[in-house]
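Re-run requested by the PI after the first attempt was lost when the workstation crashed. Everything re-entered from the original request form. Ligand of interest: protoporphyrin IX containing FE.
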Amino acid sequence: MWRNDRSSFGWIAIILHWTIALLIGGLVILGYVMTRPDIDPELQFELYQWHKSFGMLALALTVVRIAWWWLEVPPAHPATLSRYEARAATATHALLRMLTLAVPLAGWAIASTSTLAIPTFFFDLVVIPHLPFEKSEAAEAFWTMAHSWLAYGLAGIVLLHAAAALVHHFLYRDEVLRRMLGILPRRPASNTDTSASGSEKWDIGQR
Ligand code: HEM
Ligand code: HEM
């Protein structure tokens, strides 16, 4: 139930997927709104602090998710996917994993290199130490640009990824979306294919 099996995602992978998706969607909108030039400076300061706290939460959950992905064998791609589609899905998921790590790290680098040296609080609970980078306007400008490009790039790939999931659900009518929503009946253990070729396919399915 909590762990993945051969054909479906377990609740740990599902909860991490949708929590991180929600956080990233909110952070892109918040990041866009808080950097508008005409925003009230006091409100802008508040929004920056919320953005940094939720951004660090997204980073922490992403680290857990990547660790879980390493520890757990992901389910094989559904048999309805062609070889090409399966490769495209594996490559897109790998890119999404890298970007969900790179975007908050680049954000952390902005806060660390800023000459304003404003501490990064995690929801007013603890101060997150800065990365050991030299503070300078040039370094801050570089990381600000990198963070922005990576964040909007991530948003673009997420839109493609979500569109692919919806095409599978509504046009191909396969189980791709349902198994990430946890509404797919899980196979009883006795039906699990334990043949060598079956488990090999499962092992390489998503990696
Ligand atoms: C997955 C997590 C994150 C996402 C999706 C995200 C997204 C964004 C976006 C879309 C912007 C606006 C870019 C622009 O229009 O110029 C932004 C700005 C910013 N983000 Fe993030 N962010 C994330 C995590 C973080 C973290 C962890 C920090 C710091 C601890 C951070 C610090 C900042 C700062 C300081 C800015 C303002 C940069 C400026 O002054 O232009 N972000 N972020
Ligand atoms: C920031 C947003 C998102 C990110 C970073 C993301 C990332 C990922 C990653 C890395 C996987 C591979 C499995 C895993 O490691 O958990 C995955 C699977 C999946 N995602 Fe997303 N996702 C996002 C949003 C969405 C949205 C909005 C939808 C649907 C509308 C969606 C639908 C799916 C589905 C159906 C799968 C399972 C694919 C399969 O069975 O192979 N994702 N996602």
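Saved to the shared folder this time. DSSP finds six helices and two strands in the chain.
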